[in-house]
Amino acid sequence: MSSKSIYNIKKNYYTGNYKENIQLDTDDVTVYYKSLSIIDNYINNGPSTESIDLKTEYQQLIISDDSTLSVLLDKYISIIDSGSQEGIFDDIDIKDILSIEDPQIVNYALTLYFKILLRNGTSSLEDIFKSVSQLYKTLIKELLASNNDALYPYMELTFFLGQIAASLKNWDYLQGLIEFLNGKVDIASEDEIMLSFLELIYGVSSLDTQSKENGFYFVEDLVFNSSGNNLFVNLLMINLQLSNKNYEEAEQLINKIKSEEDLSQAGVFYEYFLIAQINYYLQVGTGDKDIIKSLREELNQVCELNGTTDKNPYLIEQKALSESFDTITSKYL
Questions:
Q1: For 35-49, what is each residue's pLDDT tens digit?
Q2: DSSP assignment, residue 25?
Q3: pLDDT tens, 212-259?
Q4: Is 106 left (phi over 0), alpha (psi -120 to 50) or beta?
């Protein structure tokens, strides 16, 4: 498979264009991202058919074997379908993964391992960050000491670590990761999409005007080169337009998405579309309280159906605000 094809596979995955990857033939090159595309399409866009679980959907497209990656993918799917499981890693250990000779497989397997740990909910985000960052530090130390001229092999794990750092608002750590990737290692052209997303996350969070502008141009390029109805890419642009107070452009994108006939109302992407609309009406301040109330009610319903009520960041924030208000009123009233 050509490097251009690998580039397209990774770009499709990280921009939410999962269906292109799901249609690929399965081989050693495509299996990781085809598998993740099946999983994330199920999570973010909902099941392909009514009342089907992820395992059934996955097994229609991928034949599992006894490889480490296959075992980890099966565990990941099991967690998504059935929820938290004690002893999920009883039969596999990080040492087993680190003993694999191919650094790219090590990279994929470690990323899956920590994705499972995060999804399982038995470890805190802080503990996962500590574990990943310590392991990452060891891997990088060994990599730099080897003086190997090969391309950087740990991009997926680095991207996952950057996402965790951003979730914890550890912006200094994220900035350090970005500087390391830009200055200390050579990354493959197909991996630049991950670096661009890390730079986007950091740019949006920072007060640096240049970083925000670079992020805007990156997403604008994604919009221009997408099929036009890529919900994930359009959501990125809506949020950037809102952050720049470009309300007319944000409204146009919202209306465009709402007009799409094949818009799935299941999955996490639709949850974020509802949140984007809530934020739009709150920011424009036109007094549309009934619309906001209706959107919040729909968000609650969708999250309940998706089983994401305890994971949706907007609902978590609203619950925290409500509990804080209740504490204040109980204390002073």
A1: 999 999 999 998 876
A2: P
A3: 788 888 888 888 887 667 899 999 999 989 988 999 999 999 999 998
A4: alpha
Neighbours of 90 (CB within 10 A): 8
Pair 229, 190: CB distance under 8 Å: no
DSSP, collapsed to helix, strand or coil, labels residue 191 as helix
Tokens representing residue 114 in the block: 């920590």
Residues with Cβ within 8 Å of 86's Cβ and at least 6 positions away in sequence, in order, are 122
Q: Is 208 exposed, middle or buried (0-12, 13-18, 19+ CB in 10 A)?
A: exposed
Helix segments in the chain, DSSP class H: 3-14, 18-22, 31-45, 54-59, 68-82, 94-98, 103-120, 125-146, 155-167, 171-183, 192-205, 209-225, 231-243, 247-258, 268-284, 289-306, 313-332
Helix pair 247-258, 268-284: axis angle to 10 deg: 140
Residue 139 Cα to chain centre, angstroms: 23
pLDDT per residue over 321-333, tens digit each? 544 433 433 333 4
**Amino acid, res. 88:** I
**Residue 106 to residue 103: CA distance in whole angstroms:** 5
